Structures
1.
Amino acid sequence: MTNFAELNTKKMSSTYTSNLRIEKAATSKLKDVNFENIAFGKTFTDHMFMCDFVNGEWQQPQIMPYQPMTMQPSARVFHYGQAVFEGMKAYKDDDGKVFLFRPEENFKRINKSSARLAMPEFPKDYFFEGLTTLLNLDKDWIKPGVGNSLYIRPFAIAIDPAIAAAPGESYRFMIICAPAKAYYKGTVKVLIAEQFSRSANGGVGYAKAAGNYAAQFYPTNLAQQKGYQQVIWTDADTHTFLEEAGTMNVFFRINDTLITAPTSDRILDGVTRKSLIQLAEDNNIKCEVRPIKVNEIVEASKNGSLKEIFGAGTAAVISPIEGFEYQDTYYELPEIGAHSYSSMLKERMLNIQHNLAEDKHHWRYEIK
Amino acid sequence: MTNFAELNTKKMSSTYTSNLRIEKAATSKLKDVNFENIAFGKTFTDHMFMCDFVNGEWQQPQIMPYQPMTMQPSARVFHYGQAVFEGMKAYKDDDGKVFLFRPEENFKRINKSSARLAMPEFPKDYFFEGLTTLLNLDKDWIKPGVGNSLYIRPFAIAIDPAIAAAPGESYRFMIICAPAKAYYKGTVKVLIAEQFSRSANGGVGYAKAAGNYAAQFYPTNLAQQKGYQQVIWTDADTHTFLEEAGTMNVFFRINDTLITAPTSDRILDGVTRKSLIQLAEDNNIKCEVRPIKVNEIVEASKNGSLKEIFGAGTAAVISPIEGFEYQDTYYELPEIGAHSYSSMLKERMLNIQHNLAEDKHHWRYEIK
Ligand SMILES: Cc1ncc(COP(=O)(O)O)c(C=O)c1O
Ligand SMILES: Cc1ncc(COP(=O)(O)O)c(C=O)c1O
């Protein structure tokens, strides 16, 4: 875990001299926001971070009032979807201290995504200095307490005005922030994919590439029409192995063992997923990382050994799944309430994130 | 083939009353353009077409001077790649008449793409009225003669300012135009994909979805470093069947038979491809539409029966392939020059497009 002091030292000796330019908003929109009733991802804080890549170099990074921007209709992102993103959260404790959760993982992942999309990697010191300064400016937007957070969206897009189907030369890296409550309300019913797929072997499924998400909207709409909030994707070859949900990795509990699919070039390496695997170990819960056949959970459901399914991701934290449909049959999960692994793990996770529990793996990253 | 008179009649009785608003450019940029030396997709004509979808309806369509536009950083297209496009060309004959080639196919295809990306379909009369009016305004940008054309880029993007991972409610449909010479210069060497893939079964490969293209940039870069301009994609499951290239379908000639892969949910149903299949029939060339194993063309190359490979697409028309690499071996195609099917079919195609030959299938669509 890199801390910011280290980063600053590193920055001095790096070829990047960040020289972050800051333009503060004249007034804050904060007073107009009703935090009790906030829709996910529609309200943004007072400031945003922006840095352009031109002529082979990242230019001066800037923080400025959150505002619209001017784009050419020919900008490559509109035509070829050359865009990647991340999703992180900031949490506040009762003393007003602000924390991120394993931000280094998100930093590494956005650069991994960028590499796969033929986009330039973003410098680490720019990322952490931008993030820290932005969160300090907008920290009043983070409400303390479990259930509240500030959703942080770093993203990068190709902006050159040229529609040849080839990587661009100009890019924009941005960070915008939106106050958030829980993402999915209540429990979730899911449909297991039998026809549509999310990603291919040798494709971009492991990257947070923009186009991966639009590709899921139509099949997810169809699932919703049948009463399912989400789709659990299966492998595109055979549709027999369980992979992940739209924005969550998935865990299955059979008897007292958790199982989750291994990551691959089709599956996103989720920060929540890897943290839960560690937390399971810390709490003496057996967790197997291995391919899982749909039939295995169908059988387990039939014989009563399937106890829980839950999704895991930054936006949703842990999202318990109430039941699933596969081959026109609906399988309901038993109600185990307070004894569930999902509620226990969720509580431990949130307590670490909100500085309410010991952080033995150094996952918290305080914003100073 | 719908003609515009019919469309106009239909429009009258449709629920859409287009009422196209036109704002002309004060001056033309045309005089500043050197048509002899024009890079693909970087220079745009004086006008563009724009129509927004808001509150469940397409709003008044507009033609206006080509110009940048304002976008929210939270616009869904930046985050989730909800964007589709088309590629068409306009040609001018020596009498100054302007023609499109099978534009109905592009119109149908962009709506097919939109449906798969959970985007609203665009009304036919808006599309054709917009296109016709735009081309009439900018017709001086189309130079007569074979080899010249105006590349037309209809596209649609999700513009609502909200980063929940779900389909948007606001969209923008646009048409921009760029004068074009031949897209690929000279012959092309290709690498046959063994590891990376373009699309999955049950995915969005058959749609002109923006994200499909960014996903190809990195593997194509790697191929270029090895001296290959393009990748020929294979099926993601086994990498043993030949599919298509980045922006072209592919034809193989073994002895005197052409072979091209069938379209599927992974392969774009190209207008050039389907026109060439017809032209082959018209010219008594046998053309088989069937799965083709990589090994089949490797064997055919070894025993001398593989005569030609060429790509087919609107941008490149027909692009002869000089050789291919597969499993670290380079296979060179024989030089058959003027006797090739590719040059014969390309000439027939261009002659139809440029009003120099009979158009027995009614593919030309005159802009009046
Ligand atoms: C496809 C996909 N899977 C899983 C996740 C969960 O990853 P993380 O726990 O890092 O948020 C996300 C999003 O965040 C995702 O987009
Ligand atoms: C993936 C892909 N395949 C094939 C083609 C060729 O299609 P068309 O002949 O309609 O231009 C295109 C582009 O135009 C394409 O993007």
2.
Amino acid sequence: MNAEIISIGNEILCGNIIDTNANYIIKKLKEINLTVQHISAVGDEEEELVAQLRQAFQRSRIIITTGGLGPTEDDITFQSIAKAFGLKLVKYPEAEEHLIKTLTNISIAIAPSNLKQTFLPEGSHCILNPYGTAPALILEKEGRVVAALPGVPLEMKHLLPEQIIPFLQKKFPNLKQRESKIIRTSGLGESVLNDKIKTFILSHQDLNIGIYATPEDIQIQLNALADTTAEAKTMLDEATKQLKGLLGDYIFGYDQDSLEGVIGDMLREKGLTLAVAESCTGGMLGEMITAVPGSSDYFKGGIISYSGEIKEKLLEVPAILLREFGEVSEPVARAMAEGVRKKCNSSLGIGITGIAGPAGGSPEKPVGLVYIALADDKQTLIQKYQLQRERQIIRLRAARRALNMLRLYLIN
Amino acid sequence: MNAEIISIGNEILCGNIIDTNANYIIKKLKEINLTVQHISAVGDEEEELVAQLRQAFQRSRIIITTGGLGPTEDDITFQSIAKAFGLKLVKYPEAEEHLIKTLTNISIAIAPSNLKQTFLPEGSHCILNPYGTAPALILEKEGRVVAALPGVPLEMKHLLPEQIIPFLQKKFPNLKQRESKIIRTSGLGESVLNDKIKTFILSHQDLNIGIYATPEDIQIQLNALADTTAEAKTMLDEATKQLKGLLGDYIFGYDQDSLEGVIGDMLREKGLTLAVAESCTGGMLGEMITAVPGSSDYFKGGIISYSGEIKEKLLEVPAILLREFGEVSEPVARAMAEGVRKKCNSSLGIGITGIAGPAGGSPEKPVGLVYIALADDKQTLIQKYQLQRERQIIRLRAARRALNMLRLYLIN
């Protein structure tokens, strides 16, 4: 029971936009245990789209397209579906009524090109679109389902869960039950992680297991397929326990947990507050922490001490430390963490100072050198890192290391 | 002369990541006048990938794959290419040398699984990868070129322009000349922009023109195809002049310009310095400004005043203003901008205060309400916005509005 996605639009092939619709559709289909085996992007070219639709029809049970439903010449989805499957285009009166009503409501004249949107391949279910003018469609043919959705993300993100998903659930009631779990880790490199769980992977042929590295974390994704949801969940729980035994505190959360969310919960639970002093990360750490709703419960704020002057003036880092050891040094990181803690009257303070590059490095202090300090009321912990690669990656990694350092501190 | 991209990896089909590599490759190929006709995403399944490679070979001259070059069992690109085209896998000694050297340099033990990365399909050009351990490859066969690149964006973004593009240029010297230009605008909504340049678009049938909205800006992309580069460039220059006449200061830059980069250049040029006081954006504005290399020339730093306490303590916002008008108000935004300017001793100060949501809104002050203040030595300007949608979108838009407000101030 495999599904395939066809994203239609020159803007993707020209590189003007990145296709985020496919990702959303995949996640929604996963919730009803449907897996996507293929994603294709094609341009606004009838011949190409017809070929792609026919190929999809050969190999997939469910075909979902996005895009190409608008009123312009570029919009060719309905006519391509008609051509691919040998159907006539016929007028759907409900589509025309809806179009006239929608455009009249917002006082826009109906252009002749709009009427194109009211002709659908014969035999389709017309799905009226309250979020735009273009109707979507569902076509059933020889056991397959073809669903054509708008490319506008907002419209698609309503119509898919509101119309398409319920239709698929009714049509295919006996899907094997799939459950997934994501195990999220921080602090281990990808290959070391892989080696640590190699034996685990080999002894779990019944699960589909993947390791995925993102800048935020390294995820282990577990997929279990069974006859009932309960069975699938039991397989996952068992596997998760084993991984917890193998990886311990390298695991910071599961599924939609984020490092900053997990940290936030712990801070809130322990009644602790946090302030940050950022140099090379320039505000990135604060931005990550405050992306979590409710972070005002534990996050006081901080100081972006991008220059030595601000480190001295606002964080009260002693000038002598700056002179003797330089802005990027252990003593200065320490003073930043302790300074911001004092200034913001918080339980904990974090200080990050480093060389993001590309300029500013030297043999003694190369680009990528970062010190992270974490101060509480008793002591200040320091970590030193030599990070690699480019400015944004170095800044991103420094901020993530700081979060993980805080997490491990809160655990222990 | 068409190209096609195959993105390999379960993480895409599982919805864990969005494929941004394809978009980058498209843009780079465009620069050498190659267009992409197909993008496909396949999982880490040898059978699927072999089928996709064979199909690509039928319809495309240039095939670029990303992903699947790592050391784990999931990584099947080389073996799939070998199988698809009937080639043996042979050891490449230079790949092995490079692997050993790279891992030794960062003191990581060589795992047996790493050695998999040293076997390539016979007859490939082995492209050593200074940014990682996995080599890339170029395979020439029956007039086609297959290039297999790492999926890690950083590695791919080096190897493509440094190795693959020059190879393609040498191999295919007689392509029609295509030139593109991106006009970047800020401050106008997409439909208003579209209306403003509708006539321009209609009178330029010779150019391929698209309007693309991202959270950062709204771009107008112009593509000109001509027999010589000079002709294509002339067409673009002429069109750009016309657009400048129509849009004026809504245009902030071209091609790879960024709002923060353009602002940075102006600040540096005028010898001005900047500090920021951020509440709801939590450090995001500082992070954007400091993403630009060399921003230490003009950016002093700032204060993340996430709580009222910090606004009062560190920014010296008078308690009476906080009490009478609330944290999210014009007087407080003003005091934040003026306070951070004074505290950081900078030419300019920006203050942002707002309700990012989802909680915290009220009928008088709904979620999305944001005040942005810009203070210099003579006066303080204020803008009030009612932004829509979600927390991260509201924060992002607030930060972009602040940057644009600063830009327009610097222009006038």
